[in-house]
Structures are given as structure tokens and as C-alpha cells.
Description:
Blueprint: H1 3-13, H2 21-26, H3 28-44, H4 51-59, H5 64-79, H6 85-99, H7 105-125, H8 132-136, H9 140-149, H10 153-162, H11 166-183
Helix pairs in contact: 3-5, 4-6, 5-7, 6-7, 9-11, 10-11
Amino acid sequence: MTLHSDVAELLAEAGILDVDVDEAVADEHVRSTGYQRVVLVTASSRSRDRDRAIVATILRDPNEIASKTAVVALVDRIATKVTGPAEFRQWSAELLPEIDQLKTEGYREFIRRRIHDWLFHLSIADGHAPTPVELAKVTDWMQRLLAEGSTSPAVLALLAESGSREKIRNIAKNRAGSHKLRTQ
């Protein structure tokens, strides 16, 4: 497979016909934008059957930052669509062999951490009450996402007490306080 054939295949399978393949191959920014559009189409599909092959194709791109960014976008979108942590765990486990093909360890680790973060988030949405030790194992990004979006008094209290950054703790404290006012 060549970059040209990979890009052409991804765009065609996603039904994206307005991107010039030669231009995308020559310009990593055009290609990266194309990958983001492929991710949108892929994530909106009801079938997850092609996800691993699509990720494998994207990750063959010599520009690892663009391919990593596209895969992270897919992980984020799928995490918000699944029915729970078990479904996401199964889906992401199928991608790990492809992710391990990235040459840059930092990129592999970034994607693995993002998957871990989403598993944590989904387990909370599924009723799991996290501990401070579990909270310490997720990224600041996920802690902030939870502080800004959680409606669970227990989660907000944990973040207010044990969040990794002052900003996260303050957001959680403020939201916990306003949540108490609404429930009174």
C-alpha cells in the first residue's frame, strides 16, 4: 500500500469526493483535514466492523502526529456513542494492535491513556464510584471534563477534594455548590 492508495481508499469509502487525493498526499494539512472528515463519517456509522482497518490505514501515514490526532478523534467520538464501558473496552481492545504500530512511543501512550480516561468516564456513568487512587490515574484533561460535566455529587466532591489541579478542584467545588442549590 502506498500513501496515495491509502488516502484514496479512505476518502472513497467515506464518500468524500471533494478532496483531491494528489493534493492530500502532497499537503499534510489537507490530508489531516481529510482524515478528520473520515473519522466523522466512520464514527457516525452504526457498524464498527471497519474501524480497525480504517485506523490501520490512517496509522500507516508517515506523519504520525496527523494520524495520531485522527485516531484520538475517533476514540473520543466512539466513547460518546457506546452503551457502556464493556462495549468501549471491547472496541478499543481491537484497535490496540494497530496503535502499537506507531513508531513514536509517546503517541502510542497518548492514545492508550485516552482510552483509559474514557473507560474511567464510562464506568462512572455506569454507576461506579471512583476512589482517589483511581482518579489519580486519569489525565488532567479527563478530570477537568468530569469537573465541568458531571452531575454526580460524589464525583464532584471527589474532584473538589482530590483533583490534580487547583482549577479542577475549584470547578468541581463551584459546580457541587450550585448543584446543591438546585436540589434544595
